[in-house]
């Protein structure tokens, strides 16, 4: 996948979790298989997939947060920094990442982010500390001035600054974390299921905010979600993941209107929309166990079009048109 | 997993072996080799250091420490086990009541809270001292359990209350199963391991308490326990007179028993608590 | 009242919960909620966000919480004044499926135990082979079989399978009312529809009524016949689902429906930004309409007096906008 205007490019990422209590029982959960991705300037890239498909792991790797038991076995992630240099963040050490890259270039909103705030600190102190860590001194009053616009944007009253995390509802904490992630104006925001724990009204608020923010700053967002509604609302481009691989990638209009991969097709037709009470069908079977995945194409046990070759060999990545990819034997020219 | 892992754990095996060896040796030694009551005074020459004839030395009260220490250990352990059994029994009854009833939980909880915040030492000293002419060893265990149950009950009650809110308990209610079946199938498996660990902790607590109480002289002083042995050592100023074996050797054995029991406890906790599904 | 035309009659149910340091101050988790379900099978959806009181209502119907005021009548009988034989009958008639399939079954027990117990204790089926046949039959209804389930514990199943087993267990006693508490919210999109289809099947083929509790507007639409919208303990709107979806009356329902993100590209044009929301205890404590603080049409009256229930051709809405 090539493009000139990328801000983040992942090449052949391959990683997973090493689990087991003793040497003999060590097992590898292959959560990310040979993933290549391009995040372009000024776009929202969605990563969709069911739970356990590796999308959250991919998010962590993209952010550079590779800590045991997670290991990255192969691959590079090139970041186009705001100074115009290109760095491979897999080659950087933790300190460099923390000081120079995280928060300034890339921010990460983790899943269940409402629980990441330090329960012993007021929100204001958490913010001051974050600034200090990046070498910016800020006084207590300045904080209020600085975050007022951001808080207003996400719908938080400035009183929140003086509150402890436990005094806030889940949705409010989530919005605090999102504001934190945006404070230093990063060029890239990676948001892992940013709205799973909040009600629909708040969800729409947060997403609208993310979108407007992205639009005004011309930054880029990677949004990870299992909810296709979120992707329909947000995405410029979308990557569909299944069992650790990206099975389909394209502009979101194209993927929603004309899905190519059998998995995407079945997923799209299982989705419920208003005004349609007609009978829908889910995808038979269950997602594979990543500790012990099936041979060949990981989707073949659930695929109605499965052929012999699907059971034996992993399908290649096929470029259908410019920036439109599918990983399926049905589209291979033989 | 769980139990099988436990019996493969070398540290656990060693601790268990040491503990069992000391207990078995004490029992056999007292039964077959000690002809008189080891608590009796002036049976042997006073104040001899360890030698071939008296491996642990003798005391100024004329007792052979090699005979006294096994008896003292067994007596201390008896107190410990009585305390632990009775306390655990109280804990189970109280906690299951709390788990099954709907009203009055807060009253029981307040009572448990008060009991667990009372300082046990002054009360124990007073009680044992007042009754020391009539009490027997198991009774000391009973008296200790007055205070022993409160702390584990508190923890078990909160465990059961949170368990009560787990969805699978609701599912069990929906199967129409009678309450005792639910207790048996859903509550007991979760609490068993907890009780096992607490049993060991209570034994340790009781031995420590007994020793402390005895050091204040509030114990049946003629019965050898680790506590009374140390008390007499103190009374006869063994520190000043340089009779180091009198207080060192009982303390070493106390430490060995306590440490092995402790290891057994944490290993059970480690393997069965976390090795399982909980 | 001994009305056998209604399956379930919830009459002015109020549940208070304590808050504050000692829990002495109370707020109404449910406020004067009334609902009636006909004897004919239907799927009633109860929609609300976290803290709307929907789970509390469910627990009350299951007899696991006692309301502070109001009554719940099942086939004319007050469910909180039942003899023990009647309680057993009620358990047979009213069953439930819970939200988290991995929490539904004790991980230390084989899953099939629960099905066995239901037959043994609730239905008094003494014969073991008869029990096996019944279990197999019911499991086949949800697309599984005894062979696939026997002897396994919950960690050996996927969420979707567990939810099927959970439904099968609830169906063993052939209940007349099935309570489903967010049964698909923990499942993946590709598995959701199939579970919802089972629920539809249960209504059509087993003639069992279902109360489907959810915060997910889209699945609600897919399975529901009627919908009740809860907001901060108030039942704000009740009516046939297509009518409510096409023309929501209560401003909260309007807000809720316009916030739904449908998995279709059209939503980018359809959805517009709206008032920010905060979940606050303050709202629970409002004297009048709980939605007043967020409502674009709120007047002074809304803050002070709780709106009455207003009936508009087969629908009910609690809002001053429709009072005449």
Explain how this protein is built.
Chain A: This is ABC transporter ATP-binding protein. Chain A: Keywords: ATP-binding, Nucleotide-binding, Transport. Chain A: GO terms for molecular function: ATP binding. With about 325 residues, chain A is α/β, with parallel strands linked by helices. Chain A contains ten helices and twelve strands. In chain A, the strands form two sheets. Chain A has an eight-stranded mixed sheet with strand order 6-7-8-3-9-10-12-11, with helices on both faces. In chain A, a hairpin with a 5-residue loop joins β4 (about 70-80) and β5 (about 85-90). The longest helix of chain A is centred in the middle third of the chain and has 18 residues, at about 200-215. The mean pLDDT of chain A is about 85. With about 280 residues, chain B is mainly α. Chain B has one domain (about 5-270): MetI-like fold, CATH 1.10.3720. Chain B is about 75% helix and about 0% strand. Chain B contains twelve helices and no strands. The longest helix of chain B has about 35 residues, at about 180-215. Chain C is built from 14 helices and twelve strands. The longest helix of chain C is centred in the middle third of the chain and has 18 residues, at about 190-205. Classes of the chains: A alpha/beta (about 325), B mainly alpha (about 280), C alpha/beta (about 325). Chains A and C meet through α5, α6, α7, α8 and α9 of A and α8, α9 and α11 of C.
């Amino acid at each position: 996948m090539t493009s000139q205007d990328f801000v983040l490019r992942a090449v052949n990422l391959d990683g997973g979790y090493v689990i087991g209590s003793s040497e003999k029982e060590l097992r590898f959960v292959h959560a990310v298989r040979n993933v290549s991705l391009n995040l372009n300037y000024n776009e929202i890239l969605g990563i969709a997939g069911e739970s356990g498909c590796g999308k959250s792991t991919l998010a962590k790797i993209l952010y550079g947060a590779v800590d045991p038991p997670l290991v990255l076995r192969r691959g590079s992630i090139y970041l186009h920094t705001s100074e115009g240099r290109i760095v491979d963040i897999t080659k950087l050490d933790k300190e460099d990442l923390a000081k120079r890259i995280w928060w300034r270039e890339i921010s990460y909103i983790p899943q269940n982010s409402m629980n990441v705030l330090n329960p012993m600190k007021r929100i204001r102190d958490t913010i001051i500390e974050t600034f200090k860590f990046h070498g910016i001194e800020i006084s207590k009053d300045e904080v209020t001035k600085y975050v007022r616009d951001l808080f207003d944007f996400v719908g938080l009253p400035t009183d929140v600054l003086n509150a402890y995390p436990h005094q806030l509802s889940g949705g409010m904490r989530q919005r605090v974390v999102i504001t934190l992630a945006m404070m230093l104006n990063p060029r890239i925001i990676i948001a892992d299921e940013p709205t799973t724990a909040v009600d629909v009204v708040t969800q729409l608020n947060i997403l609208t905010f993310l979108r407007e923010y992205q639009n005004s700053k011309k930054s880029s967002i990677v949004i990870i979600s299992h909810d296709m509604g979120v992707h329909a609302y947000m995405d410029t481009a979308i990557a569909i993941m299944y069992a650790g691989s990206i099975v389909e990638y394209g502009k979101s209009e194209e993927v929603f209107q004309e899905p190519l991969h059998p998995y995407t097709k079945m997923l799209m037709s299982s989705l419920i929309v208003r005004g349609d009470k007609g009978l829908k069908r889910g995808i038979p079977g269950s997602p594979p166990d990543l500790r012990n995945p099936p041979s060949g194409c990981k989707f073949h046990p659930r695929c109605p079009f499965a052929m012999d070759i699907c059971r034996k060999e992993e399908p290649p990545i096929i470029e259908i048109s410019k920036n439109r990819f599918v990983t399926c034997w049905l589209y291979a020219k033989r | 997993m769980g139990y099988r892992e436990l019996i493969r754990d070398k540290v656990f095996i060693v601790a268990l072996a040491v503990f069992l060896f000391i207990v078995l040796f004490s029992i056999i030694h007292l039964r077959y080799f000690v002809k008189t009551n080891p608590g009796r005074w002036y049976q042997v020459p006073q104040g001899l250091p360890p030698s071939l004839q008296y491996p642990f030395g003798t005391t100024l009260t004329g007792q052979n420490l090699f005979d006294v220490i096994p008896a003292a250990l067994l007596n201390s352990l008896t107190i410990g086990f009585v305390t632990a059994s009775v306390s655990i029994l109280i804990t189970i009854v109280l906690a299951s009541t709390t788990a099954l009833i709907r009203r009055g939980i807060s009253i029981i909880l307040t009572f448990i809270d008060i009991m667990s915040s009372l300082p046990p030492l002054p009360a124990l000293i007073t009680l044992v001292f007042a009754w020391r002419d009539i009490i027997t060893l198991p009774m000391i265990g009973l008296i200790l359990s007055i205070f022993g149950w409160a702390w584990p009950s508190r923890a078990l009650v909160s465990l059961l209350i949170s368990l009560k809110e787990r969805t699978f308990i609701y599912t069990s209610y929906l199967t129409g199963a009678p309450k005792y079946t639910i207790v048996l199938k859903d509550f007991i498996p979760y609490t068993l391991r907890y009780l096992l660990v607490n049993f060991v902790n209570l034994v340790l607590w009781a031995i420590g308490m007994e020793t402390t109480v005895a050091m204040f002289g509030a114990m049946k002083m003629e019965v050898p326990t680790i506590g009374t042995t140390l008390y007499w050592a103190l009374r006869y100023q063994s520190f000043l007179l340089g009779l180091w074996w009198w207080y060192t050797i009982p303390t070493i054995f106390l430490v060995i028993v306590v440490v092995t029991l402790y290891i057994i406890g944490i290993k059970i906790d480690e393997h069965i608590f976390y090795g399982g599904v909980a | 009242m001994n009305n056998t035309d209604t399956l379930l009659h919830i009459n002015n149910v109020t549940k208070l919960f304590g808050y504050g340091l000692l829990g002495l101050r109370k707020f109404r988790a449910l406020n004067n909620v009334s609902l009636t379900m006909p004897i004919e099978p239907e799927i009633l959806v109860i929609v609300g966000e976290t803290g709307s009181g929907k789970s509390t209502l469910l627990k009350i119907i299951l007899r696991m919480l006692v309301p502070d005021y109001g009554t719940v009548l099942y086939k004319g009988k007050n469910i909180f004044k039942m003899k023990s034989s009647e309680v057993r009958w009620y358990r047979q008639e009213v069953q439930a499926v819970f939200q988290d399939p991995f929490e539904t079954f004790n991980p230390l027990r084989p899953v099939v135990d629960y099905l066995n117990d239901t037959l043994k204790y609730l239905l008094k089926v003494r014969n073991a082979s008869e029990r096996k046949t019944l279990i197999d039959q019911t499991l086949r209804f949800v697309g599984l079989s005894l062979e696939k389930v026997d002897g396994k514990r919950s960690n050996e199943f996927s969420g979707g399978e567990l939810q099927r087993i959970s439904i099968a267990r609830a169906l063993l006693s052939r209940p007349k009312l099935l309570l489903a508490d967010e049964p698909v919210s923990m499942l993946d999109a590709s598995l959701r529809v199939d579970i919802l289809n089972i629920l539809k099947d249960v209504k059509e083929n087993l003639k069992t009524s279902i109360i489907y509790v959810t915060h997910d507007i889209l699945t609600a639409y897919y399975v529901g016949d009627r919908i009740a919208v809860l907001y901060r303990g108030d039942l704000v709107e009740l009516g046939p689902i297509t009518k409510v979806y096409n023309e929501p009356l209560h401003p909260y329902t309007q807000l809720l429906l316009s916030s739904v993100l449908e998995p279709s590209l059209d939503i980018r044009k359809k959805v517009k930004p709206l008032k920010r929301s905060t979940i606050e205890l303050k709202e629970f404590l409002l004297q009048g309409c709980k939605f007043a603080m967020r409502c674009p049409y709120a007047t002074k009256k809304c803050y002070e007096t709780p709106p009455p229930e207003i009936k508009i051709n087969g629908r009910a809405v609690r809002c001053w906008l429709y009072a005449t």
